[in-house]
Write a structure and sequence with these properties.
25 strands, 8-stranded parallel barrel, 648 residues, Oligo-1,6-glucosidase, domain 2, 23 helices, 6-stranded antiparallel beta sheet, Immunoglobulin-like, globular, 38% helix, binds alpha-D-glucopyranose, alpha/beta
Length: 648
């Protein structure tokens, strides 16, 4: 039913703020009116019964107006440009890199001197790992924030960040930053006040007088860091209470039952939007709503919060896309794009964490069956949304795809996962990989995998053994992994260091703030003398850099690689070969990847059974022209080789 009172309320608020509804603010006003009913409805689904629901809703309305009025005009014009482009973030022109500014180049100012490096590689989208204030030794890589508005002095200042954003914008680059929505550092002002006994701030978190409720919660909540931070609650001696801390004990979970918390965090989201963030990475959204008797992950209210954020952003700062960092079961990941009336109206992006892990599965087994068994889920991604595709990031690799997918491929899930963990931790006899198990949980038998792209592909061991052919093979694997994720659909996100083949960095073991967390082994400190070797022909760095650069450039030339939900899997005539078709109009690209350590054979019929019979195919990678053979003849793909074949 039309909510007249609500529209009146918005109208009054807008007019009171001096918004020029018929003039320059007309689009904002239109968006606001179009989304008001949804915003109100989503908000009330969460807070209808809260005594301060009304008051906080008024604040929310004020925040939206403030975000719009404070939005710099350069960003408003950029919003317009993005709108005119349509789904700007689906483009094949975008290629990202995720990096720690301090480990990459010292500080934010140093980064502005490196923009040329990204340009040379072809990267035009940067995910800068968290830089807001975070206690040095209890930081979780910046994901324990003690001040959401203050850039940590180790990185520079807010002015430096704003200057960098402007420079990036001038160079047509895009910026991604994190909002750590689920928790704050225990040193955050709210946490300090809560610790001192202020009830108002204790209500920002989940505080308990004794263990009775925590014990109940613990019965159904899994542990995220069972080794470094067992359990989900931490005792606070100052106030003699327990606080929920799902991640580390210094990361306290925010309580979104409290509308104040939502409004405070929305304000921070707008603050980041108005710095010029193009994609906001919402950290750990699966965890933001808790309910006794559940795993406290992926709950419907978590989606309601994300939808509410999305609609507010859509009104006030529409150029900012949202990435939900939900590293959960495949089916659950898909829900973060929205469901029902909210399809493609929740997160614009999610990480394709399932496929990332499946690539590692294929590389270890040489078999594509498990990967294919997962695709019916992944192909459900709604039109207009996209993946972040990647081989490695700052986190571990979790083998979180479903047991039924492994069974469908004919394997025993327990044995299969055990093999993968042994293979990548180097336990498995003959494994070339050098990684480590992360967060092993003896109670459940679960473990995830740490290690850099290069080390997991065998480069570390090959260099140590001075084995030329093993070095060549590991480089081949690195590029195979990158190529597969670059052409799959979505925005590829490189992890810094991988573009020149960094192997594991063990220096973290000498730092007490990091040694308990082996994810630091794959978060290298960049040595620019090493990166400089990318210019010397014949070096490993040169080969990996050139190949990565060439892959990026090929991706940018082929529009059918943009994510228009235009991916079709080829029939698996050979289980070692992962093949998919990307198409746009009449244009097609057949991408075939051999995950086997031996040459693999693919019948030419594979290219003819999709209503198309090309006579010749051009491989963009090797720049070779192939005559399509007879159905009884085969295309031979070398060990860990791949082809990007376009009909000519
Ligand atoms: C996300 C981050 C991870 C961090 C966790 C807790 O998953 O990617 O690095 O430890 O959230 O903030």
């Amino acid at each position: 039913m039309y909510n007249y009172a609500l529209h009146q309320q918005i109208n009054e608020a807008v007019q009171h703020a001096g918004i020029d509804i018929g003039g320059e603010d007309n689009l904002f006003y239109t968006r606001f009116m179009a989304n008001t009913a949804d915003i109100f409805d989503l908000y009330m689904q969460l807070y209808e019964h809260h005594p301060k629901a009304e008051k906080n809703f008024q604040q929310l309305v004020q925040l939206i107006i403030k975000a719009h009025t404070e939005r710099p005009s350069a960003l408003k014009s950029r919003d317009e440009q993005k709108r005119e482009k349509g789904n700007w973030f689906l483009s094949n022109q975008l290629v990202g890199m995720s990096l720690y500014v301090d480990r990459f180049c010292g500080d934010i100012r140093g980064l502005s001197n490196k923009l040329g490096y990204f340009g040379e590689l072809g990267v035009n989208f940067l995910h800068l790992m968290p830089m807001f204030e975070s206690p040095a030794n209890e930081s979780d890589g910046g994901y324990a924030v003690s001040d959401f508005r203050k850039v940590d002095q180790r990185f520079g200042t807010l002015e430096d960040l704003e200057a960098l954003q402007k420079e990036m914008q001038q160079q047509d680059m895009y910026l991604m930053l994190d909002i750590v929505l689920n928790h704050t550092s225990h040193q955050h002002e709210w946490a300090r006040k809560a610790r001192q006994g202020e009830k108002k701030y204790q209500d920002y978190y989940y505080f308990y007088n004794d263990r009775s409720l925590p014990d109940e919660y613990d019965k159904t909540m899994p542990e995220i860091f069972p080794e470094a931070a067992p359990g989900n609650f931490t005792f606070i001696p100052e106030c003699k209470k327990w606080v929920m801390s799902v991640f580390h004990n210094y990361q306290w979970d925010l309580n979104y039952n409290n509308p104040h918390v939502f409004v405070e965090m929305l304000d921070t989201i707008f603050f980041y939007a108005n710095i010029g963030v193009d994609v906001l990475r919402i950290d750990a959204p699966a965890f933001i709503w808790k309910q006794l008797g559940t795993t406290c992950q992926n709950l419907p209210q978590a989606h309601t919060i994300l939808r509410l954020i999305k609609q507010c952003v859509e009104v006030a700062t529409p150029g900012m896309a949202l990435l939900g960092e939900a590293i959960v079961a495949p089916k659950e990941i898909l829900n973060y794009f929205g469901t029902g009336n909210y399809i493609a109206r929740e997160c614009d992006f999610a990480y394709n964490a399932t496929h990332m892990a499946l690539q590692w599965d294929m590389l270890a087994t040489g078999d594509t069956k498990v990967m294919l068994a997962a695709q019916h889920e992944l192909l459900k991604k709604p039109f207009g949304t996209s993946w972040i595709t990647y081989t490695r990031c700052h986190d571990d690799i979790g083998l979180g795809y479903d047991d039924y997918m492994i069974k469908q491929a004919g394997y025993n899930p327990y044995e299969h996962r055990k093999f993968l963990k042994d293979y990548y931790s180097g336990e498995y006899n003959g494994s070339p990989a050098r990684g480590a198990l992360f967060s092993s949980n003896p109670k459940t038998g679960d473990a995830r995998i740490s290690g850099s792209l290069a080390s997991l592909c065998g480069l570390e061991k090959a260099i140590e053994q001075d084995n030329e052919s093993a070095i060549a093979l590991s480089i081949q694997k690195i590029i195979l992994m990158q190529a597969h994720s670059f052409f799959l659909g979505g925005v590829p996100m490189l992890f810094y260091g991988d573009e020149v083949g960094y192997t594991n960095d063990y220096s973290y073991l000498h730092d007490s703030g990091k040694s308990y967390d082996n994810r630091w082994m794959h978060r290298p400190v960049i040595d620019w003398r090493k990166n400089k070797r990318a210019e010397e022909p014949g070096t490993i760095e040169n080969q990996v850099f050139n190949d990565t650069q060439r892959l990026i450039s090929i991706r940018k030339q082929l529009e059918m690689v943009a994510d228009h939900s235009n991916l079709q899997w080829m029939t698996p005539h050979n289980i070692h070969i992962a093949g998919f078709i990307r198409s746009l109009g009449d244009e097609k690209l057949f991408c075939v990847f051999n995950f086997k350590d031996k040459p693999s054979y693919l019948t030419w019929f594979a290219f003819k059974e999709h209503g198309y019979a090309p006579a010749q195919l051009k491989d963009h990678w090797s720049e070779t022209l192939y005559d399509v053979g007879d159905d009884r003849e085969y295309l031979v793909i070398p060990p860990y080789g791949f082809l990007l074949l376009q009909p000519v």
